Amino acid sequence: MTVKTNHQREKRTNVIRWIARIWGAFVFIVAVFIIMAYAGNWMRTGVADPYAVEDYPPIENLPPIFMFLSALGLGIAWRWEGWGGGVALLFQLATLPVLLIHWPLWEDFPRFLIAPYGVWLIVIIPSILFLVCWQRSR
Question: At CB < 8 A and 24+ separation, what contacts does 13-22 make?
Answer without folding.
Answer: 13/133, 13/136, 13/137, 16/129, 16/132, 16/133, 16/136, 17/81, 17/129, 17/130, 17/133, 19/126, 19/129, 20/77, 20/85, 20/126, 20/129, 20/130, 20/132, 20/133, 21/77, 21/78
